[in-house]
Specification:
It is an enzyme of class 3 (hydrolase). The protein has a single domain, classed as Rossmann fold (3-Layer(aba) Sandwich). About 45% of the residues lie in helices and about 20% in strands. Helix 2 packs across helix 3, helix 4 packs across helix 5 and helix 5 runs antiparallel to helix 7. The model has no long low-confidence stretch (mean pLDDT about 95).
Length: about 260
């Protein structure tokens, strides 16, 4: 892992492979380790860059409030420091919200992008209330009880039974998330706007990936726009974590999308 300073925050990242650049952003209370089954395979053909979001993994965050747009700016700063020109950006869940902000503010930097188990829709009023309550719970009880409640929602029922190692590694990564940063990230997600119009920008190709057993982002929420420049892919027998539950299927979907864009 390498680090760069972005304002008061230390942003950690990892690189592997050579070729066209593809960047991966993990989800809430995750880290670059989410991509351990995906990145090494793709690095045989691409320059893969994995970034820990502020306050997650090996990245550090100040105590100051921040927005999804601030997190997108972190990504821009990292890639500029690496002198990366145009690239493909793939964001999982929270990473997808950051990806959409990046598309809105820095579209000239992208060859294409993907939302993996994510959505362009804003939070419902009920979901916003849930974010506030979760932030209060983390402040009062710490991060571990929150993660323990989150884990069963991330994986399909079969994965919870059969992928014990992946489930437990996800739990440990969640426990390592900075609790104050987690609270601020919850509030940032609550405040994010509707970005369905960003998805409708026909100048940038889009991949939308959904799990048919996702308990957090339904297929309908994931596939919020139907346009010719949008490729949709349902990962069978996967919950919210296809990169761990069905990595081969996710890799195939990404490779096919990249191949389409090259041709």
């Amino acid at each position: 892992m390498k680090k760069i300073k972005v304002g008061p925050n230390d942003i950690a990242f990892k690189e592997m492979g050579e070729g066209e650049a593809i960047v991966f952003l993990h989800g809430f209370c995750g880290s670059v380790t989410y991509w351990d089954k995906v990145a090494p395979v793709l690095s045989s053909d691409y320059h893969v860059i994995l970034i820990d979001l502020r306050g997650h993994g090996n990245s550090k965050a100040s105590d100051a409030p921040f927005t999804i747009d601030d997190m997108a700016k972190d990504i821009k700063e990292v890639l500029e420091s690496l002198q990366i020109g145009q690239f493909y950006l793939f964001g999982h869940s929270l990473g997808g919200y950051i990806t959409l902000s990046f598309v809105e503010h820095y579209p000239e930097k992208l060859k294409g992008y993907g939302l993996i188990h994510s959505t362009a829709f804003p939070d419902s009023e009920e979901a916003k209330e849930g974010r506030i309550n979760s932030a209060k719970s983390i402040e009062k009880n710490g991060i571990q009880p929150f993660i323990d409640g989150l884990i069963p929602k991330l994986f399909s029922d079969d994965s919870l039974l059969n992928l014990k190692e992946e489930v437990e590694s996800t739990r440990k990564v969640g426990y390592s998330t900075d609790s104050k940063a987690a609270q601020q990230t919850l509030l940032a997600m609550k405040a994010r706007p509707d970005r369905t119009t960003v998805l409708e920008n026909k100048s940038i190709p889009v991949l939308l990936v959904a799990g048919d057993q996702d308990k957090i982002i339904s297929v309908d929420k994931a596939f919020s726009v139907e346009e010719n420049h949008v490729v949709t892919k349902i990962i069978a027998e996967s919950g919210h974590m296809s990169m761990l539950e069905k990595p081969d299927s996710l890799i195939k979907a990404i490779r096919e999308f990249l191949h389409i864009e090259k041709n």
